[in-house]
Amino acid sequence: AQSVTQLDSHVSVSEGTPVLLRCNYSSSYSPSLFWYVQHPNKGLQLLLKYTSAATLVKGINGFEAEFKKSETSFHLTKPSAHMSDAAEYFCVVSPFSGNTPLVFGKGTRLSVIA
Amino acid sequence: DSGVTQTPKHLITATGQRVTLRCSPRSGDLSVYWYQQSLDQGLQFLIQYYNGEERAKGNILERFSAQQFPDLHSELNLSSLELGDSALYFCASSEGQGLVNEQFFGPGTRLTVL
Asked: Between chain A's N and C termini, which has fewer beta carbons within 10 Å?
């Protein structure tokens, strides 16, 4: 069975400082992994995805994530936070094979302080 | 703007009632997904349709049903509503039927059951 754990429910950073949102996954197969962002009162938007190509994945708005199989992690990072990054972030796992639906983490709320 | 539209934006109803939520996918997308987002359960996959046929089923209650019409729009029907059904309901669409495809999310319908 697939599962995903977002290790922090809330992260607060100052504008201009690095962002780290942590995610660990469990999957019986080689997984596909995603990060989605949800701004207040909006739907989810895909930030980036990993599908067994390069382990370092670059996404939109300066975000990137590194797939580490040995640590079963897929942490999301950004070198310098911007006020507009304040949102809810979801780590998502899907098995590479089969038709099992996406499994979403509980989300991490990112606050950016001026 | 993801190109996925959902109506209505807000819905307030009473326990025991029945409601219908509507979703129009992005032009060209054949798959439609329904999700429920609540504070206690997080984001949960309900059901997927591909080109009019049910493809995958998640944690969808028997009181809930969905369908996808020939023009590819989809409806989610919720009946015998309970207080616990209050949530944000998202529709997403993707080009193919595979679950590793990027899903584009609509803005959601906020359902309040009083």
From this structure: C
